[in-house]
Design goal:
Arc Repressor Mutant, subunit A; 2 domains; 3-stranded antiparallel sheet; 6 strands; binds zinc ion
């Protein structure tokens, strides 16, 4: 792990800097034009996934642009309320979401209204760039080294091992699994890593 960080540093000191810088400048320009929604921002997505897993990201997406109770999140996502709460508290611990507590006059119980804090998520990101870089590099390695399969019905991809265990049927819907081309995932990860390295050089 330590080795990886040093490796990353070396690369960013080399020739790649100028190339990376240009690419970043280009991207920044493009970003201003299109104005990404927070939920579509790949960096924010990575942060949320890192804090609370893929489901954390899905939960956080519900909270973009509106305040929602945990019951409502659970209902919309078809998830158990307890699980939603656990995810929300994970996100809260990392200050990515905040809540407003209101006492229900009839029941006497507190109702929690949750919302996402994109700016805080970014702060968190700034403090954890190096860790995030490491995490992304690990993921890239996995994506490169793993043969993936999926069903094509929108369920998550599975590794060869898991696919073989399940007789090449999707663990979620039971449909036949086919090979999954993850080259776009790899390219996206490479781009993220490059831009993150650049930010580390700048700070
Ligand atoms: Zn499926």
């Amino acid at each position: 792990m330590v080795k990886k960080i040093t490796k990353g540093k070396k690369v960013s000191k080399g020739k790649k800097i100028s190339k990376g810088k240009k690419a970043v400048e280009k991207r920044v320009k493009k970003k201003k034009e299109t104005r990404q929604k927070p939920s579509d921002d790949p960096v924010l997505r990575e942060i949320l996934t890192r804090v609370a897993g893929e489901r954390g990201y899905e939960v956080a997406k519900v909270l973009v642009d509106e305040e929602v109770t945990d019951d409502e999140v659970a209902k919309r996502m078809g998830m158990r309320v307890n699980l939603v709460r656990k995810i929300l508290y994970d996100l809260y611990e990392n200050r990515v979401v905040s809540y407003r507590r209101v006492r229900d006059e009839h029941s006497g119980w507190y109702v929690y209204y949750w919302r996402i804090e994109p700016e805080r998520a970014r702060e968190y990101f700034d403090n954890n760039k190096r860790l995030l870089l490491q995490k992304l590099e690990d993921r890239l390695e996995t994506e490169r080294d793993t043969m993936f399969f999926n069903c094509g019905n929108g369920d998550p991809k599975v590794s060869f091992e898991l696919a073989a265990e399940n007789d090449f049927k999707c663990p979620r819907c039971g449909s036949k699994l086919g090979p999954y081309d993850n080259s776009s995932v790899i390219m996206a990860l490479e781009r993220q890593i490059e831009s993150l390295r650049q930010r580390l050089v700048e700070s």
